[in-house]
TrEMBL record:
CDD domains linked to this entry: Radical_SAM
SUPFAM superfamilies: Radical SAM enzymes
Superkingdom assignment: Bacteria
UniProt feature coiled coil, ranges: none
Domain Radical SAM core per the UniProt entry, residue ranges: 277-514
Listed NCBIfam families: rSAM_fuse_unch
InterPro entries noted in UniProt: CHP03960_rSAM, Elp3/MiaA/NifB-like_rSAM, Radical_SAM_N2, rSAM, rSAM_horseshoe, rSAM_sf
Molecular function as annotated in GO: catalytic activity; iron-sulfur cluster binding
Protein name per UniProt: Radical SAM family uncharacterized protein
Organism of provenance: Yimella lutea
Amino acid sequence: MTPRTSAPGESLFHDLEPLLERVSKPIQYVGGELNSQTKDWNCGGTGPDGQELTVRWALMYPDAYEVGLPNQGVMILYEVLNEQPNALAERTYAMWPDMEAQMREHGLPQFTVDGHRAVRDFDVFGLSFSTELGYTNMLTALDLAGIPLHAADRGDDDPIVLAGGHAAFNPEPISDFIDCAVVGDGEEAVLAITTHIAAWKAEGRPGGRRELLLRLARTGGVYVPAFYDVDYLPDGRIKRVAPSPQAPGVPWRVSKHTVMELDEWPYPKQPLVPLAETVHERMSVEIFRGCTRGCRFCQAGMITRPVRERSITGIGEMVQKGLAATGFEEVGLLSLSSADHTEIADLTKGLADRYEGTQTGLSLPSTRVDAFNIDLANELTRNGRRSGLTFAPEGGSERIRKVINKMVTEDDLINTVAAAYGAGWRQVKLYFMCGLPTETDEDVLQIAELAKRVIETGRQVSGRKDIRCTVSIGGFVPKPHTPFQWCAQLGAEETDARLQKLRDAIRSDKRYGSSIGMRYHDGQPGIVEGLLSRGDRRIGRVIEAVWRDGGRFDGWSEHFSYERWMRCAEEALEPYGVDVAWYTTRERGETEVLAWDHLDSGLDKEWLWDDWQDALDETEVDDCRWTPCFDCGVCPQMGTEIQIGPTGKKLLPLSVV
């Protein structure tokens, strides 16, 4: 489409307003949320030769407003950038199909919700991908913005399209569409990029966008796909990924960014408060970053090493300021395994004491079975409603839990739920995965037996019959930078068949069937996610074909089309002699070059392979927080270290003025 012409930085709200009454949930496009910012377009001023020096970022979480606004990553970068006097950041989200149609009909380009400015007017269009299923939404946004889909077609007046988030640890499937990617923590990375862009602007933009991208690539912390050449073997595997001879000074490997001393980065200081209902209605504080539990399926745990805790006093200050700035009545204490914080008991008790008698409640994400205790749970519910508890055993049998390094026995789980039901809880949710490496039907059917034992235990310790257990099951998708990056994914039909057997096993026992709920996702979206997560540059043709065929919001079941993905993949991949199965259900060998090997997460590939072999041998590995180092490579290679307490400090109640 050809966007409407307007002066750079000019508000498009006059053109947007008439469209709002024609679309669903118009409030999501209005902006003006509490704590949002709209800075002066030229806040950075001009140089002595008249060159404008402001560095402008349009930040996007490529999903609907209700999913994107609560995203902590985007919210943090939005605030970090807007604190800089020479930078501004605004937000944009995926347009719902009805709004996309109206925008195309009326020539309105992709806009930000803060200043309603055209995304194409910004210097950087930064997208945060927590899941690969947002890739088609990126193409919609690029097209609506009037930015050429392919990076190779962009000119000096087009924004730098930058990808971040967990999915950026393998950006190869979208390498046709992005100019660069950043892996790891974003706080320091966006400031460094802003500094480079500001210097380039002050010098009069020498060499255009190519020179700017070269400068960024040479830092070793920004990956520019165009500066790397990929060669393939006759059988379709990658032969080599190497810096292009036309890009001198570009490193062979690009390193992830790791923020240390989290107390020095207490963001967001003023969290955004949504205007419309969103998936999370709470104020959240990240209490630590990273995880070394070593769950072999968990990409987030592997790529965010090492563990870095916020201090108990730093968390308390963030909670205090965040509640004052937002008015929320719930505080989420976030991390990959929040109950593992070394001072979690003092923290939850201190916060419960501080806010006792108020409407402020505390919550944790799903809790590890072996980290839960009733004292902790009681502190979390002291000022709030006692809702259900969520635990994630992940695997149904003890054998499969050894394979995935989830060191929880069945007795651990039963003892934990017995304590919960005995203390007055009536509902427990258990999360599992289907399709794990070496898994058999019997491993999955053990989920039914486990759920029945949970119900029976709950009835015995509580003396009640109204005990409930919900079994939630997701399909396992192998991810880059994990020990399972080499394994074969279970096919969609096999996944569905295994889940059907489990459902039948749960329903067949009338004593428990009505007390056990089952929620699951079929195997088809997992195959598409697997194609995108371990794909290489050839997958870009598939993504574009799906998007041109109408693919949008692939993370939403009502919009996802497996048939479309398979049809487009067959046509797009046929010239290369590979297919969807080659990327998903094929097991890789030790020496195969993986599409993401040139992106350095800090983890030694040899260590990951050894851990994969340990998985096949059903050998468990301890958490390196409490044991000697297992030499995964992260700390020495990244120049980092584990940062944990205890600090010995207490979270004192707020003084009343």
